[in-house]
Amino acid sequence: MTSKKLLNSAQHVVDEMIEGAVISLKGVRKLEGWNVLVRDDIDVAKLTQVSIISGGGSGHEPSHGGWVGAGMLSAAVAGGVFASPSSQAVLSAILATSGPKGCLLIIKNYTGDRINFGLAAEQAKAAGIPVEMVVVGDDCALPNRTGGLAGRRGVAGTVFVHKVAGAAAEAGKSLEEVKLAAEHASSSIGTMGVALSVCTLPGQVRDSRLGDDQCEIGLGIHGEPGAVTTTMKSADELTSIALDYIFKQEQGWNYFSAAAGSNVALLVNNLGGSTAMELSVVARQAVAHLSNVYQLNVVRLLSGTFMSSLDMAGFSLTVFKLDEGLLNALDQNTSAPAWPNTIANPSLPHPNYPVPELISQTAKALTGPSLSQEHSLLFAKAVAAACVAIREKHKELNEWDSKVGDGDCGDTLLVGAEAITGQLSSIDFSNPAAAFSALGNAVKTMGGTSGAVYQILFAAAAGYFASEASSQQVTNQHWANAAERAVAAVSRYGGATSGDRTILDALIPAVSALKSGQSINGVSDAANQGATNTTGMKARAGRSSYVPEEILRTVPDPGAAAAAAWIAAVANALV
After folding, report:
1. Beta strand 131-136 with 103-108: parallel, antiparallel or unpaired?
2. What letters, b where the CB count within 10 A reaches 16 and e where it falls short, cover 443-470?
3. Burial 33-43 (b: 16+ CB within 10 A, else e)
4. pLDDT of 116-138, one tens digit each?
5. Would you say the pTM of this structure is higher than 0.85?
6. Residue-wise pLDDT tens digits, 240-287
7. Is 162 a catalytic residue?
8. Which of these is catalytic: 60, 64, 162, 222?
């Protein structure tokens, strides 16, 4: 089956991409007749600067058009998807952007790029234009690639070479000086990628080489096989494996090394189909691994999409060994639209911001009616039973929520249940006001709507008990009043009520039963019936309100079902 992509035609996708780039990337123009992007100030820049040109096959965006601008590339030449541009396209870029100081071509180590850019360089030289070329091979995936015919593949580390060469050109240095700066940068980088899926070219069938439980270490940016296929591992494990390949010193590797105490920059690159969330998790471990295992100072961190491989899920890591000159070049300003405006320095302290006193205060100051020792133990037993019920039911809740929400209702409630379980021994259950306040503090890490709902329930119950005289013993009426106030607070702030297909469809009947003096089993039955009634109920609040009614007929509201489950567990614990 052909993969789904947002395009009009596989044949014209690069042409249309360039047209879109011209109107969406600031400071670039299209070279007439060619898929080449050039600086819009090139007429002035080429009079005093070496022209820096890169390019290659399309499908690696934002490389290479995103790096066109003052301080990086003068032009980027786009070939077809994963296909080298023609020598004539490269020559046109050289002719358009080169001035008295000449031109430096920076390419990745692939045969098609070497031949076509090389041919264009020779043609330009014959026309009297000074041209030099730097070939980048920073991939550390495959052994015995130093000095061989094929050599190491050029991958995401090439972006660092663009930046260093661009800074040298912007400073007015000669062609020879700019070339030496680019070569110095190229010799100071190592890159390793990890793919969770293989990329799919426009109009082609999705490659199924990797199974759902597999990933590939060292996969090429065109989908070429990597060093090893292995079972899926955690983000921390994959990150550490990738970095260890870069520093590998076994026979046949020895591509990159850095002495302990060296300063390095780290590039965490999205290969196309991964999320910012995943990249942040990878960046966290990468900095820790470089610092703890290799004793390196990560003084610059760039995380985002720099050199993609269409829709490939995965990441690559580039380690850039810095000296004072390279760090200075990295920090120079550029107008290239894809270069991040700010670059993090992970080596600086990053202390957490302190929590204000009002939020961090303990619940011990709250007082109100108290419980006997016997009833305190029952209260604790009921809370513990409720947590067990959530733990047992969370997968089923996720399954229901995947149909009517975002699929994490059970996981979210489990976070709260586990947090409460971990604090049970420290909660004073003889003081309901303090106990409910402590329960609210315990679930504050839940997040989402469910987290807020349960915090409101606990806060309102704590507030009710704190408003009652502390000289009293807790009565059944206290419990009923606290439950009524808690449920009313959720309704008031959330805007929902009975019949809206929410947690309130279980809680409101339960409170009514409690207020009318029914037994705890009667309260549980009322909650269960309310939750059951949500199956087929039209949703008027929450994410379910956006779900088609035919789907709502198949499952109950997960929040209501969860409430019914823990109320039943409480009932069982109390009888």
Report:
1. parallel
2. beebeebbbbbbbbbbbbbbbbbbebee
3. ebbbbbbbebe
4. 999 999 999 999 999 999 999 99
5. no
6. 999 999 999 988 889 999 999 999 999 999 999 999 999 999 999 999
7. no
8. 222
